[in-house]
């Protein structure tokens, strides 16, 4: 029995979609740097278009990509003054803290029949080995880690080289790639597909602008709050934490850990720990319940409750990558749902 044309087309599209999902699943490790490059190219493409009006496009791509890499490197270099200042203090304080911990903790544990005594001399030897002034211990540890996890290190280096190269070619041929993709769409669906992509582009632009505003506000908040608490490293720690918020949870965790280290070493008391707990706890509440739902969620059309649900759902389903892509993916799903609702309202099923 020969199926009607509509059913055959539906089966063909379902087969194509299923094949695409299987290929993506099988090639996920290979596709990841290409997907990362595609996201970067989408973000950087407007700047390249503006600059290419005055310069050759290849030169514009190189300049924009170098600027983006310099900005990313600048954020990472914010950690350098923190580490360079805190490592000598850490080298001096670890034996002192170990002695205090041994003097206060060991007698209390002995009351419960637990005999623990820290080997202070071994701790001092460890500190002198790995926190020496020249950094030879850290270099040796790094080389040892490279030998143990060589494949992981090679993968990082490979992606660090591959992603900029792929991004360059995507930006260079951006408009030509768009024309090729448009030619693959059946003519009768072209207007609908272009309308959908334009709406997605507008929503993603709103998301990026909202996320940038959240990062700037939080960078100012953490810097001012830590400065009011008289932290010596308030500026680099605060700016790094605010900008690193773009990576959900991980960025906040690294910033909080750096602030906690700076507070403990600067004050050598519970004051530093308490200040970090209050400042970062309040910052997390402000970001999660006010800034992100209002500045990001409202800009992309998501209700604050929907933002929280999307973050939790994507994090549960896809882990860290899901959390990173939750809001932009939720925005695209929202665009699709709006169009599906419009089609349903206009259908005979709804109108009877």
UniProtKB/TrEMBL annotation:
Q: Which UniProt keywords apply?
A: Membrane, Transmembrane, Transmembrane helix
Entry's Pfam families?
AI-2E_transport
Mention any one GO cellular component term assigned to this protein in its UniProt record: membrane
Q: Where are the transmembrane segments?
A: 12-43, 55-83, 152-172, 212-231, 237-261, 268-286, 306-337
Q: List the GO biological process terms.
A: transmembrane transport
Q: Which InterPro entries match?
A: AI-2E-like
Looking at the keywords, is Ribonucleoprotein present?
no
The way this protein sits in the membrane is described as:
Multi-pass membrane protein
The subcellular location is: Membrane
At the top level, the lineage of the source is Bacteria
Main location class: membrane
Q: Which PANTHER family match?
A: AI-2 TRANSPORT PROTEIN TQSA, TRANSMEMBRANE PROTEIN
The family this protein is said to belong to: Belongs to the autoinducer-2 exporter (AI-2E) (TC 2.A.86) family.
- Name of the molecule in the record: Putative PurR-regulated permease PerM
Source organism of this protein record: Sphaerotilus montanus
Q: What is the lineage of its organism?
A: Bacteria, Pseudomonadati, Pseudomonadota, Betaproteobacteria, Burkholderiales
């Amino acid at each position: 029995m020969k199926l009607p044309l509509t059913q055959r087309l539906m089966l063909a599209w379902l087969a194509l979609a299923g094949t695409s999902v299987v290929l993506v699943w099988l090639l996920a490790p290979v596709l990841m740097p290409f997907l990362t490059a595609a996201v970067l190219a989408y973000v950087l493409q407007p700047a390249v278009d503006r600059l290419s009006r005055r310069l050759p496009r290849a030169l514009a791509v190189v300049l924009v990509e170098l600027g983006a890499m310099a900005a990313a490197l600048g954020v990472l270099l914010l950690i350098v003054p923190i580490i360079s200042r805190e490592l000598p203090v850490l080298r001096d304080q670890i034996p002192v803290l170990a002695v205090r911990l041994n003097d206060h903790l060991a007698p209390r544990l002995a009351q419960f029949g637990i005999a623990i005594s820290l080997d202070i001399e071994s701790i001092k030897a460890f500190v002198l080995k790995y926190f020496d002034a020249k950094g030879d211990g850290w270099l040796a540890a790094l080389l040892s880690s490279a030998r143990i996890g060589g494949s992981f290190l090679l993968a990082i280096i490979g992606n660090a080289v591959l992603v900029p190269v792929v991004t360059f070619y995507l930006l260079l041929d951006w408009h030509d790639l768009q024309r090729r993709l448009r030619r693959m769409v059946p003519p009768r669906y072209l207007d609908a597909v272009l309308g959908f992509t334009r709406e997605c582009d507008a929503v993603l632009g709103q998301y990026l602008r909202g996320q940038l505003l959240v990062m700037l506000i939080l960078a100012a908040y953490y810097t001012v709050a830590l400065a009011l608490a008289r932290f010596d490293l308030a500026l680099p720690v605060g700016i790094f934490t605010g900008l690193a918020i773009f990576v959900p949870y991980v960025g906040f965790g690294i910033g909080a850990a750096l602030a906690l280290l700076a507070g403990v070493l600067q004050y050598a008391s519970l004051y530093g720990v308490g200040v970090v707990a209050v400042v970062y706890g309040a910052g997390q509440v402000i970001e999660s319940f006010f800034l992100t739902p209002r500045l990001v969620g409202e800009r992309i059309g998501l209700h604050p409750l929907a933002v929280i649900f999307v973050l939790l759902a994507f994090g549960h389903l896809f882990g860290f990558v899901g959390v990173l892509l939750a809001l932009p993916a939720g925005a695209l799903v929202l665009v699709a749902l709006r169009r599906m609702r419009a089609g349903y309202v206009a259908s005979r099923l709804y109108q009877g």
